[in-house]
From TrEMBL, chain A:
Record organism: Thermococcus siculi
GO aspect biological process, one term: pyrimidine nucleotide biosynthetic process
Cofactor binding note: Binds 1 [2Fe-2S] cluster per subunit.
Pfam families: DHODB_Fe-S_bind, FAD_binding_6, NAD_binding_1
Name of the protein in its database record: Cytochrome-c3 hydrogenase subunit gamma
NCBIfam families named in the record: PRK08345.1 (NF006220), sulfhyd_ShyC (NF040830)
UniProtKB/TrEMBL annotation, chain B:
Record domain 4Fe-4S ferredoxin-type: where: 218-250, 294-328
PANTHER family: ANAEROBIC SULFITE REDUCTASE SUBUNIT A
Superkingdom of source: Archaea
UniProt cross-references to SUPFAM superfamilies, sorted A to Z: alpha-helical ferredoxin
GO molecular function, one term: oxidoreductase activity
Protein name: Hydrogenase
Entries under Pfam families matching the protein: Fer4_22 (PF17179)
Gene3D superfamilies given in the database record: Alpha-helical ferredoxin
Length: 291, 334
């Protein structure tokens, strides 16, 4: 066992699955069972993937801690490191260190309604929340509002369609907004006319009311999305303390040393890797530059 | 605090005795610049220096640092403890190290920093401020801890404050070199400190500073200075509390690679850049302002992230002065 927090542990790729042309789902397990046993995380936390000799990058855990023995990462191919891992095959080994960050306060939200608002790749960390909430059965009702570009870009499409069909039995309502029209989307829209529409994720709020005293919103998406989603929620008077969002910054160390993820001003400085990546909207109101 | 006296005639012998601990680094003058270098003899040092270009952080957070070595697909740890002495550290730099301690020793501790910190013997020395120093405004002009021994100049030697068990042991091993402190020594010590306190020329008004600066987020003063700034990052390199680092893997041959850390600067465009080209601090104004906010952040348990050493002023090619920027930003509020 290494005492050095920068040293990663071997994890074997059990499965690689194409989710979309740009994103792949990697299912991993630690080679040392003892390490795997100790590896416990909460939805919203992330790991640092170590391609030894090539570099490291942070990725959210997209599986739920309720499903043990493995963990999953949904990785979009955007550059050098992510291109490298996209070429890796089942059976190969990568380094993993973590989990890092605070994650969502799942215990605190027990018994409440959850509104998950995902935009694009933001679906990855929220999928961990989604399955945690469904598996544990400790939440009143779960909504998933998911905004995607096109049918091909829907992450975890099988799961989303499955929940569209059978979600209510699991206390979960799914709504989907797409931007680019295609026969598949139109077909979906026909099947679920009240829950699938052309538009952006904020359009899914239209006509929705919810009990603001018993609801939490959890948001993850591209930087531009936060402002608009928060406006919808604030219009309905959801307290800034009940709005959680997970943020992205350049990260190197993941443990509050390298300084890259620092945001804020002289009155409030936050490290996104250590104090976040999950913040409340109240944090954003009191810390400039967070969103 | 325990006080003892080191008479001037024993100074050299005391210095030489430190070599038993490990390599000794002290302030050396090269051209117009002082820097901490390995020294063998007292006369190689210039103890009446104002500031070194790089602060002592260079011993703990190195400008370039190989942290891991890859052999047969596994990382090998490069954590080493080699005892060394930094001789002649000023009070502000001791405070600078304490701020770095907060970051690097906070759990999970950085093992490289921790090992080096544990193997370093810190010998402080008193100093006289120049036109750039404003440590007095920040309360960093005097160190109450963070050193092993601190030497204060007296007319006939040094008043030594013993700041740690290790410092005590070192003094003990060289017992014959030290004397008891006399009333006269204490009077001289007081006179020196009082004279020193009066000789500060630059002052930072820190009352309500953190709030004032935050309120002045949109002040045109930020822009005025960001336009002059060359974004060279010098101020980051020389600052005793700046600590951002970048990480890079390098192959040495087909089988071996190293993971290296090196100083990074928040003035660089890449500092806040993430995948897909999105930048969280896209303009020079964003980056300039960020550094001032980071330095002026007030941590209730550790104070400001600036110790008033004046390095950023002395080594800024654009002649930007830290206190002046803050005063103007604050002034622009009315
Ligand atoms: C907390 C967190 C969670 C994330 N979760 C996911 C996820 O679930 N799925 C996913 O696909 N992506 C996720 N990302 C983004 C992912 O880290 C970047 O896409 C990845 O680092 C890009 O690396 P690259 O070398 O392929 O890209 P390049 O564009 O080639 O990167 C250039 C350089 O910038 C660095 N870099 C770029 N973006 C980031 C970044 N955001 N953080 C740190 N370094 C960066 C790279 O390491 C590289 O050195 C997450 C980022 C953060 C901070
Ligand atoms: S900001 Fe300037 S004066 Fe303050 S500690 Fe850093 S270099 Fe010294
Ligand atoms: S040293 Fe001066 S010019 Fe260079 S980045 Fe700092 S403020 Fe700008
Ligand atoms: S990623 Fe290094 S400080 Fe946050």
């Amino acid at each position: 066992m290494s005492e050095n927090p920068y040293v990663s542990y071997d994890a074997r790729i059990l499965e690689v699955k194409d989710l979309t042309p740009r994103e792949k789902l990697f299912t991993l397990r630690f080679v040392d069972p003892e390490v795997g046993e100790r590896f416990d995380f909460r939805p919203g936390q992330f790991v640092i993937v170590d391609l030894r000799g090539f570099g490291e990058f942070p990725i959210s855990i997209c599986s739920s801690p309720t499903r043990r023995g493995y963990f999953q990462l949904c990785i979009r191919k955007v550059g050098r490191m992510t291109k490298f891992i996209h070429r890796m095959k089942e059976g190969e080994v990568v380094g993993i260190r973590g989990p890092y960050g605070n994650g969502f306060p799942m215990e605190k939200m027990e018994g409440s309604n959850l509104i998950l608002v995902a935009g694009g790749l933001g679906m990855a960390p929220l999928r961990s929340v989604l399955w945690y909430a469904i598996d544990s059965g400790k939440y009143e009702h779960i909504w998933l509002f998911y905004g995607t570009k096109a049918y091909e870009d829907i992450l975890f499409r099988d799961e989303v369609v499955h929940l569209l069909k059978h979600g209510e039995a699991m206390n979960c309502s799914v709504k989907l907004a797409y931007e680019v029209e295609s026969p598949s989307c139109i077909y979906l829209e026909k099947g679920f006319s009240d829950r699938v529409c052309k538009g952006v994720v904020t359009d899914l709020f239209r006509g929705e009311e919810f009990d603001v005293n018993n609801t939490y919103a959890l948001i993850c998406g591209p930087p531009v999305m936060y402002k608009f989603v928060i406006r919808e929620l604030s219009d309905r008077k959801l307290s800034p303390g009940r709005i959680y969002m997970t943020l992205e910054r350049r990260m190197r160390c993941g443990i509050g040393k390298c300084g890259h993820c620092i945001v804020g001003t002289s009155t409030s400085i936050k490290y996104v890797c250590r104090d976040g990546p999950v913040f409340t909207y109240w944090d954003a109101l009191s810390t400039r530059g967070l969103i | 605090m325990r006080y003892i006296k080191l008479p001037a005639e024993n100074f050299e012998e005391f210095f030489n005795s430190l070599k038993a601990w490990g390599k000794v680094y002290g302030p050396v003058k090269r051209g117009n610049i002082h820097s901490f270098q390995e020294v063998q003899r007292v006369k190689e040092m210039d103890l009446y220096y104002n500031r070194t270009m790089l602060p002592p952080k260079k011993f703990f957070v190195r400008p370039r640092d190989v942290i891991l070595r890859l052999k047969n697909g596994k990382w090998e740890n490069g954590v080493k403890n080699e005892p060394f002495v930094i001789f002649g550290v000023h009070s502000c730099d001791i405070h600078g190290l304490k701020i770095l301690d907060k970051v690097y020793l906070d759990e999970p501790a950085d093992p490289y920093y921790k090992a080096r910190r544990e193997s370093a013997l810190i010998i402080g020395i008193s100093c006289t401020p120049d036109e750039y120093c404003f440590c007095k405004s920040l309360g960093t002009d005097f160190a109450m801890d963070g050193f092993d021994l601190f030497l204060h100049e007296l007319p006939d030697g040094w008043l030594v404050r013993v700041g740690s068990v290790r410092g005590h042991e070192i003094a003990w091993e060289n017992e014959e070199l030290f004397e008891e402190v006399t009333e006269e020594d204490l009077a001289n010590f007081r006179a020196f400190e009082e004279k020193r306190a009066k000789s500060f020329k630059r002052k930072l008004s820190k009352e309500g500073l953190a709030d004032m600066l935050d309120l002045a987020y949109n002040s045109p003063v930020w822009k005025k200075y960001a336009d002059i700034c060359l974004a060279c990052g010098n101020c980051n390199m020389v600052c005793p509390t700046c600590r951002c680092y970048e990480v890079c893997d390098k192959w040495l041959n087909a089988y071996e690679a190293v993971r290296e850390r090196r100083y990074d600067s928040c003035f660089m465009e890449s500092h806040g850049l993430v995948a897909g080209g999105h930048n969280f601090r896209p303009t020079r104004l964003d980056r300039f302002r960020h550094r001032y906010y980071c330095k002026s952040y007030f941590d209730p348990s550790a104070g400001f992230n600036c110790v008033g050493c004046g390095r950023c002023d002395e080594f800024c090619p654009a002649g930007i002065e830290h206190v002046k920027v803050l005063d103007e930003v604050r002034g622009s509020l009315q």
